[in-house]
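Supplementary Methods, section 5.1.

A reviewer requested that the exact input to the structure prediction be made available. We therefore reproduce it here, unchanged from the version used in the analyses.
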Amino acid sequence: MLSQAQRTAILELSAQGVTKREIARVLQLSRPTVRKVLRSNSTLVPEIQRAEKAEPYRQQILELLISCKGNLVRVHEELTVGGAALSYPALTAFCRRQGIGQTPIVPAGQYHFEPGVEMQHDTSPHEVEVGGKKYKAQTASAVLCYSRLLFFQINPTFQRFDCKVFLTDALRYMGGAVERVMIDNTHVVVLRGTGREMIPVPEMEAFAEHFGFRFVAHQIGDANRSARVERPFSFIENNFLAGRAFASWDDLNQQARQWCDRVNSTYKKHIRAVPRELFAIERMHLKPLPAWIPEVYRLHQRTVDVEGYISVHSIRYSVPVSWIGRRVEVRETRDKIEIELDARHLVAHVRALTPQPQRITLAAHRPPRGEGVKRADPHPEELAILRAAPEIAGYVTALKQKGRKVVALALRQLLRLLKEYPHEPFLAAVGDAARYGLYDLDRLERMILRRVARDYFLLLDTDSDPHD
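The structure derived from this sequence is encoded token-by-token as follows.
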């Protein structure tokens, strides 16, 4: 098939008086081909008029495409069973030319951003090895749209607290704030609505106002709108995470920051520039950060359990034993867990992320081995027992040491026996129990009942006359 340029050359050479033989020799064509072009006297390439083999089966193809759920392999099999003499390539070519079962091709667009206008933020799940264990973690990434400066962190979870921590670190890394931050309709930021109708959570909106930017969301399905931040995730997974293991989450994010410094200083073919050099221009257009950036924190209210711990995200942190049963306020920051009883009593722990659950105990929160916890005052039940029956003080002391029940429960049961039964049978039964070393209070109660039955409930002799 001759091109339009070849046809134009043949006609022009013929108009100049060049012979057909010479034209064929110069253009390396056959003389019949030259004669055919001269007869047509047109530079237009003629269309091939050829019948489509699949045209007779067009309606059948349309029906089978629906029943076979768009699978052309199944459509071809059904056509063959029905007697159609049609190859699979002929079928696919026919469908492609006729637009049957084909998604219309839409040309790709291009987004242009001025310096300091937009930063895109998104998250993606990745598998990482931390401390010898593998975790399904969340990679949070932020990219300046003009300079393509990249910053990311990886954490085991990504909630609203983690989002604020990440964005604070990202803005500090970039040295300023942009006008808007593009997000992917994430529930961490979005209260309701999508795209242009998106309304952010008041907490996140106040956070953005403090730094001078606003959250915007792209339309659902318009992933190209956030392509600046989507593209690096594959690079992070196949370059940074490939073959790397980390001692801790802090070690992971420190290495991630160093990797970002190196990548941002490397020439990028797709932008034909170095991000760090473009950032030198963009930085002049960023909004300055506030003079004071408050530390991101999360508040919890907890009651210290009987073992002297409070729990945050299934991780238990120790407090002084004197705080047992007291209500405390827990302040969770990126690096610390601060437990406050009042303004003068504060305990700080290093915040642990994994594994869950676990216990973290400070040495100062446990008495030296063998000393135990000294109780300032005896139990109220013990005081009531000793006031009513001081003669069983020895048994009460032995009961606290050798009884199998919790001391408070044992004293409470002993006080109940003292109140419910006559004094003499009670004291006699306790005396026998102390003599034989019996500290089972249920058995002690049966001993009291036998004495009560013997001393207070005398049975009459039924064989004798009651009137005698």
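The chain has a mean pLDDT of 89. These observations are discussed further in the main text.
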